[in-house]
Amino acid sequence: MLPGLLQNLSNVHEYFTWLLKHNGGTFEFKGPWFTGMNFVLTSDPMNVHNICSKNFSNYPKGPEFQEAFESLGDGIFNSDHDSWGFQRKLFHTLLKDNRYKAFFEEAVKGKVEKGLIPILDHVSSLGIEVDLRDVFQRFTFDSVCLTVLGHDPNCLSIEFPNVAHSKAFNEMEENSFYRHFVPKRWWKLQRKLQIGSEKKLLRGWKVLDEFVYECISTKRKETLKKEELKMDLFTTIVMEEEEGEMNDKITKSNKFLRDTAFNLLAAGRDTVSSGLTWLFWLVATHPLVEAKILEEIKEHLLDN
């Protein structure tokens, strides 16, 4: 099966979708015996529910997953058992904080009004063709950075700027994903020699680390001054540390904040941007649905 996978690496998502469709929603991939590349793909809703919810504790990610995604550190995506449970409970508490919820709503609404809508108006008025996936990735990257780190990288603007830490995140994500589809010995050799995908991964990792740690340093200085603070997630965590609400030493470390940022960037950027892209594509290819949406907007949202 390995030659087919290598041949389709450039369109791996479409390839796996095709495999799943032709195998009833679940497919077992078997690589050569010496690669250790055996894994199961599933899109069956009952399987997904069983793995991700009903019996989640039966499916630990394990050391191989954690090694492949080592750039995520000890964050919630890479953790198992007690560590995962602790972080899940902590994030539920933080995300329900009324101060954070109010800031989140204000920040995302502002990014839509001052960033997303002006860009769409601009390209529409000039008849310019743009990649909506890129637009929405810029929107979600800015939104996650703003609501988690309190810093707006301003990727989403008419100029479509090339922002270093956004590009670094792309390199990290793409090349971490690549580790799953080549023999471990191969990517470890690349890492040792500092070549190929591993060189790109480490380069992106370094750039994003510098960016996040700088944000953490700034955030700690801001909270010490007790000035008007944006109630982003980092501010909420740091303030609760100072107020004695967090007694666990893990949450007080800069590494915890760094790992949290990396994991929330991974969780929030591509998931939402892909969903928005698919929504617009589906609406564009179903004129009757588009007409009903426009009718509902005129009826309920627009001033008469």
UniProtKB/TrEMBL annotation:
Cross-referenced Pfam families: p450
This protein's record includes keyword Iron: yes
Keywords: Heme, Iron, Metal-binding, Monooxygenase, Oxidoreductase
Gene3D superfamilies xrefs: Cytochrome P450
MF annotations from Gene Ontology: heme binding; iron ion binding; monooxygenase activity; oxidoreductase activity, acting on paired donors, with incorporation or reduction of molecular oxygen
Cofactor requirements of the protein: heme
Matches recorded under InterPro entries: Cyt_P450, Cyt_P450_sf
Keyword DNA-binding: no
Superkingdom of the source species: Eukaryota
UniProt similarity note: Belongs to the cytochrome P450 family.
Protein name: Cytochrome P450
The organism's taxonomic lineage, starting at the top: Eukaryota, Viridiplantae, Streptophyta, Embryophyta, Tracheophyta
